[in-house]
Amino acid sequence: MRIDIITVLPELLKSPFEASILKRAIESNLVEVHFHNLRDYTSDNYKSVDDYQFGGGAGMVMMIEPIDKCITQLKNERSYDEVIYMTPDGERLNQGIANSLSLCENIIILCGHYKGVDQRVRDTLVTKEISIGDYVLSGGELGAAVLCDTIIRLIPGVLGNETSALTDSFQDNLLAPPIYTRPRDYKGLKVPEILFSGNFPKIEEWRETEAYKRTKDRRPDLLDEDV
Questions:
Q1: Domain architecture of the chain: domains with CATH
Q2: Which spans in 102-161 are helix H?
Q3: What's the average model confidence in pLDDT over 5-14?
């Protein structure tokens, strides 16, 4: 997989990809991540990427020209499955979206700034709009990093245990069940005995029950009780 990220602040984005799982995925050639500074595609001496909005109003708007130039150049080099714009009013990111995007070969992620991008970018260049939550950040870079993490960890070979991602919260619309490790008894706080039974079908049944209980308690909106 190749991910091209268009941003005005590439330095803000690079550090998450220089450590841990993301770094190992890149070094193992399981994914390529490339950063493109939008200011390199401007046509004036000031390297301007934004301007005042027509009709008046507070806040600057990212111009279509440098964005179009960058995306066009990338598309001339390869085909892309998606051109994603990170925006608060996009589709809220969930595990299903991450699963789908992890199957892509090439994607572009455009990081918004200021009041956002010229609407013509969204109308003609973007194929998918994604939000990481109902709040506003200073820019799309942190959202892009979150999106990349959710996608890359699902690529086969990235995680040490291939089944680990399949048992994460939200993969089956349930939160993950409680998990435990050593010591077995810590200051009187004991691990459930079922986990030491060796009866793996029963253990899985316990985990499913606990996952359902936790979901019903914390995220009942994930359960479709009418089905």
A1: 2-152 (3.40.1280.10), 169-222 (1.10.1270.20)
A2: 119-124, 141-152
A3: 94
